[in-house]
Amino acid sequence: MRPIQMVDLKLQYEHIKPEIDSALQQVLDSCAFINGKPVQEFAQDLAKYLGSKHVIPCANGTDALQISLMALGLQPGDEVITPSFTYIATTEVIALLRLKPVFVEVDPKTFCIDPSAIEKAITPKTKAIVPVHLYGQASPMEAIMKIARAHNLFVVEDNAQAIGCDYIMNDGSRKKSGTIGTIGCTSFFPSKNLGCYGDGGAIFTDDDALAERLKMIANHGQIARYYHEVVGCNSRLDTIQAAVLKVKLKKLDEYIAARQKVAEFYDRAFEGQAQITTPYIAPYSNHVYHQYTLKLEGVDRDGLNKFLAEKQVPSMIYYPVPAHRQKMFDAFGGSAYKLPVTDWLTERVISLPMHTEMDHEQLNYITTQVLDFINH
């Protein structure tokens, strides 16, 4: 059996090696390492795939979130509602811009932000909502957008873990996650469903004026070369990463299908196990399984994590400490928040290996080890 990895990027690369090598060689031959032709081509390809009018590539997913909030004209002290159960980048950029993160609960089934919690958290200072499409499934965007419209709030979708996910509207139509709010953001970190070979990110919007502002902020606030309209930053996707992404975007749906097959195997293996809850799929979203995350009840989660490591099965806990309990948010009153669902989840979740190159032998071994620990 091949060694098991959380994400097997090496084998994935071997399967697309000729296309990747050719794309990289073209960049090396052109020597256009910054803003080369593949950057614009990838942006156009991604816009078409997502059904979004504008895609603005940038340096990473954290920058995508920061630039998005900068573009909305928020002022220090303005409140931004976001889940605490997420990777720290989501909330970090809010604080970095001297805005106030307001942490709310998630749905214990989907792990995504709870619209009823958003409603309760709105104050006259609330200016934006940042829902996170966690683990590969979309947040309930129609409910969120209804709240946003009622209170005149911006919505910035953190789509770093759900690129390619389909949101199913009440009328049966579909939109890609990240294209429903005011702005969508994603990361191309190598382990993502659409990952490059370094850092990368992108921002999406259908608003023409907002797109121009986002581009300007990402490029030192320039309206034209050497003419700087606003304070911006330097955040760009380099040509080599764009070339890689251009190849991999064509395979994204194939990669999603492979992940869904892995999830189906796990689901069948754990069916009927009272102590294991497999990922719930909401009626309004499909699941692209950036992570395959179990909830455990009456199981020593940390003991299982250690046991699997001893059996050469990697597993991860996303996330052991929620944002509101991180020391960095003490100044924002983080410790005063009472978020029992979030705290409950941090003690019970564990993610198993999930990637496009997994085979039956590996999956059988992983599930056998999990069940041996739980049932003995």
Features:
376 residues, alpha/beta, Aspartate Aminotransferase, domain 2, Aspartate Aminotransferase, domain 1, 2 domains, three-stranded antiparallel sheet, globular
Task: Kindly describe this structure.
With 376 residues, the protein is α/β, with parallel strands linked by helices. It folds into 2 domains: 241 residues, 3-Layer(aba) Sandwich (Aspartate Aminotransferase, domain 2), CATH 3.40.640; 124 residues, Alpha-Beta Complex (Aspartate Aminotransferase, domain 1). The radius of gyration is 21 Å and the shape is globular. The model has no long low-confidence stretch (mean pLDDT 97).
What's a concise summary of this model?
The protein starts with 8 loop residues before the first helix and ends with a helix. 39% of the residues lie in helices and 15% in strands.
Percent range for β-strand residues: 5-15%
How widely separated are the two ends? 24 Å
CATH topology of the largest domain: Aspartate Aminotransferase, domain 2
Output the CATH class name of the largest domain.
Alpha Beta
CATH superfamily of the largest domain: Type I PLP-dependent aspartate aminotransferase-like (Major domain)
- Percent range of helical residues: 25-40%
Structural class designation: alpha/beta
The tally of domains stands at 2
Q: Give the second-level CATH assignment, the architecture of the largest domain.
A: 3-Layer(aba) Sandwich
Radius of gyration from the alpha-carbon trace, in angstroms: 21 Å
SSE arrangement, N to C = HHHEHEHEHEHEEEEEHEEHHEEHHEH
Mean pLDDT: 97
Strand order of the largest sheet: 1-9-8-5-4-2-3
Low-confidence stretches: none
Counting H and I runs of at least 4 residues, what is the number of helices? 13
Reported for the largest beta sheet, the result is: 7 strands, mixed
Number of strands: 14
